[in-house]
């Protein structure tokens, strides 16, 4: 069934991929920016993701579990930290209270190429 109306202009398929890093999965496209758990490297250095679970475009390739020969390349834009998460433990009537904080280190990556 052909696309009609506002979807007719979106017939070209954008290349995309699903990558795995830091124990999480991200859907990425060339030019998009993602925040992932801390990666080693300075601002401006190149980073390559080899754990590609799915690669799409004109034809979709699904990995079992990884797509053979597929890589996603990007550039580190910033190294930063997330907001603080407070962990508070309490047991009623026992005078037991513990408070801890955690700030996750993050890396902002701009995806440049899906190969």
Could you provide a short overview of the structure?
By secondary structure, the protein is mainly beta.
Structure write-up:
This protein has 115 residues and is mainly beta. The protein has one domain (5-79, 107-114). Helix content is 0%, strand content 53%. The protein has a four-stranded antiparallel β-sheet, with no helix packed on it. The chain is elongated and about 65 Å long. The model has no long low-confidence stretch (mean pLDDT 91).
Features:
115 residues; mainly beta; elongated
Produce the secondary structure layout.
Layout: E1 16-21, E2 24-28, E3 33-37, E4 46-49, E5 52-56, E6 61-62, E7 72-81, E8 85-91, E9 96-102, E10 105-114
Antiparallel strand pairs: 1-2, 1-5, 3-10, 4-7, 5-6, 7-10, 8-9
* Rg measurement, Å: 20 Å
- The oligomeric state is single chain
Amount of helix: under 10%
> Helix and strand string, N-terminal first?
EEEEEEEEEE
The major β-sheet equals: 4 strands, antiparallel
Mean pLDDT: 91
**What are the segments in which pLDDT stays under 50 over at least 5 consecutive residues?**
none
Strand order of the largest sheet: 2-1-5-6
Number of helices: 0
Distance between the termini: 30 Å
Please give the number of β-strands: 10
């Amino acid at each position: 069934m052909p696309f009609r109306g506002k979807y007719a202009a979106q017939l070209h398929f954008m290349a995309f991929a699903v990558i795995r890093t830091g124990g999480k999965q991200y859907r990425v496209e060339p030019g998009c920016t993602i925040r992932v758990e801390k990666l080693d490297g300075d601002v401006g250095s190149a980073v390559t993701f080899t754990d590609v679970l799915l690669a799409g475009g004109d034809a979709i390739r699904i990995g079992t579990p990884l797509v053979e020969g597929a890589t996603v390349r990007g550039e580190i834009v910033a190294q930063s930290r997330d907001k603080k998460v407070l962990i508070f433990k309490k047991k009623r009537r026992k005078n037991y209270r513990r408070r801890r904080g955690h700030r996750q280190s993050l890396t902002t990556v701009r995806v440049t190429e899906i190969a």
